[in-house]
Write a structure and sequence with these properties.
Largest sheet: 5 strands, parallel
Number of domains: 4
InterPro entries: AAA+_ATPase, AAA_lid_NorR, CheY-like_superfamily, Homeodomain-like_sf, HTH_Fis, P-loop_NTPase, Sig_transdc_resp-reg_receiver, Sigma_54_int
Protein name: Sigma-54-dependent transcriptional regulator
CATH class of the largest domain: Alpha Beta
Pfam family, one: Response_reg
Organism: Enterovibrio norvegicus
CATH topology of the largest domain: Rossmann fold
Keywords: ATP-binding, DNA-binding, Nucleotide-binding, Phosphoprotein, Transcription, Transcription regulation
Number of strands: 18
């Protein structure tokens, strides 16, 4: 505990309060001592400590009343109940009502400090989990749909990079949403009200690309009948997004490098230099370093642009995001086309989830559009999915991959099972041991990342942190 925590002690006995202050004098905490319940309530209305030590017997009200008020207000703090000998049952009841721990008088220095440290560590972990959970629960973000861990990482990078002027180099397969990502960065930046100009360097002929970026003067080349502003001038004060940057001609790459370095450029056919204030974003579906090695992309330009790298995950690595996105597309297109679709059959969900999606989100979007246009119904079936999706998995594979549904066994089935397959008591392990083993295996599989393990186990991260802390405490005390 490096940082100081705020601790409130509610104890009407001054000798005991002074003793606790002496015990905790070396701990990194700010300790406030109050003698009555009303003083505590007045204090808590203005300030919320990390931890409260609450005596059960107070001169003006009971500790139960104070605890009830704290829980009713939903204060984000831990409560340790301090009780006299013989009141342990009452303390246990209070823990059921929301107290986090209890101490029985007389309290030793070691017991007090250990309990305090454990609860404050729990507070720290809970705050960490809450921060992670806040990020983790973002199901949508500036045009993106999805709550998977890879996308949460994308959202965090955008949050961090957007406020600056640093160039972001976006990479990802075709159809992963690189332009959506660029628009999200612009929308999150201080330039959000200024223009966002996007150019696809692979879709514009090389001999016209320079004019598209820098503009041209009248008569600069055949067909230039009037002066034209380029993307550079249009994006002044805002953001210029160069998609498929690795497709740009090498000669133009040299001019672009100077433009990025100086913010100055010349129109095609012009002699006057112009200056603009631009935030650069770029993207490619290729490996830029491979293009540098092949001599197709300037190394100095790569290092000028590659300030904040941002890799978009392919759809096949985004887990349940596939179904979330597909359902969103399905309901949107069904509404547009006047169809009844609202969901996918369980078998169709299995196919969608396990198809590799080489075209990523763009391919998924086209597949769902195809289904809605050609079919109708409440739920999309496998037969309604277009090739090759409807041919990807066999019936046996679909059944093996489908989520299992619990069916209440009949009494006859139960009797048949017990008669034909008797279970030895030695074969039954305590549920606590099985749970601990499963959690530890998941954490180990995820390289120690508790959040990832929680996702795999489909439980709250706070549950894993709490259980992990309890096991470590038991090990230390063994």
């Amino acid at each position: 505990m490096k940082s100081k925590y705020r601790v409130l002690l509610i104890e009407d006995s001054k000798p005991l309060a002074n003793l606790y202050i002496q015990y905790l004098s070396g701990e990194p905490i700010d300790l406030v001592c109050l003698e009555t319940g009303q003083q505590a309530l007045d204090y808590l209305e203005k300030s919320t400590p990390h931890l409260i030590m609450l005596d059960l017997k107070l001169p003006d009200m009971s500790g139960q009343e104070v605890l009830s008020w704290i829980k009713k207000q939903a204060l984000p703090c831990s409560v340790i109940v301090v009780t006299s000998h013989g009141s342990v049952n009452t303390a246990v009841e209070l823990m059921q009502q929301g107290a986090d721990d209890f101490l029985e008088k007389p309290v030793s220095a070691e017991r007090l400090k250990t309990t305090l440290k454990n609860q404050l560590e729990h507070v720290r972990l809970q705050h960490l989990v809450d921060d992670i959970k806040t990020s983790f629960e973002r199901n949508t973000y500036q045009g993106f749909i999805g709550a998977s861990l890879p996308m949460q990482n994308v959202y965090r990078i955008i949050d961090a990079a957007a406020p600056s002027k640093a160039t972001v180099f976006i990479t990802g397969e075709s159809g992963t949403g690189k332009e959506v990502c660029a628009e999200a960065i612009h929308a999150q930046s201080p330039r959000t009200k200024a223009p966002f100009i996007a150019l696809n360097c692979g879709a514009i002929p090389h001999d016209l690309m320079e004019s598209e970026i820098f503009g041209h003067v009248k008569g600069a080349f055949t067909g230039a009948s009037s002066e034209r502003k380029g993307a550079a001038a249009q994006a002044d004060g805002g953001t210029l997004f160069l998609d498929e940057i690795c497709e740009m001609d090498l000669d133009l790459q040299k001019k672009l490098l100077r433009f990025i370095q100086t913010g100055r450029y010349q129109k095609v056919g012009g002699s006057k230099e112009e200056s603009v204030d631009i935030r650069f974003l770029c993207a490619t579906n290729k490996d830029p370093l491979h293009e540098v090695a092949a001599g197709k992309f300037r190394e100095d330009l790569y290092y000028r642009l590659h300030v904040v790298p941002l890799a978009l995950p392919p759809l096949r690595e985004r887990g349940d995001d596939i179904l979330t996105i597909a359902t969103k597309f399905l309901r949107t297109y069904a509404n547009e086309e006047g169809k009844s679709f609202t969901q996918f059959s369980p078998e169709a969900e299995v196919v969608l989830r396990h198809y590799p999606w080489p075209g990523n989100v763009r391919q998924l979007q086209n597949v769902i559009r195809n289904v809605v246009v050609l079919h109708d119904g409440d739920a999309v079936s496998i037969k309604q999915l277009p090739p090759p999706l409807n041919e990807t998995l066999s019936d046996q594979e679909i059944q093996s991959l489908a989520p299992t549904t619990y069916v209440e066994p009949s009494p006859d089935a139960h009797e048949a099972t017990t008669d034909s397959t008797p279970v030895e008591s030695s074969d039954i392990r305590p549920l606590e041991d099985v749970e601990r083993e499963a959690i530890q295996q998941a954490i180990e599989f995820c390289g120690g990342n508790v959040l990832k393990a929680a996702v795999l186990l489909k439980v709250s991260p706070s549950t894993l942190y709490r259980k992990k802390q309890a096991w470590e405490t038991d090990t230390d005390n063994a």
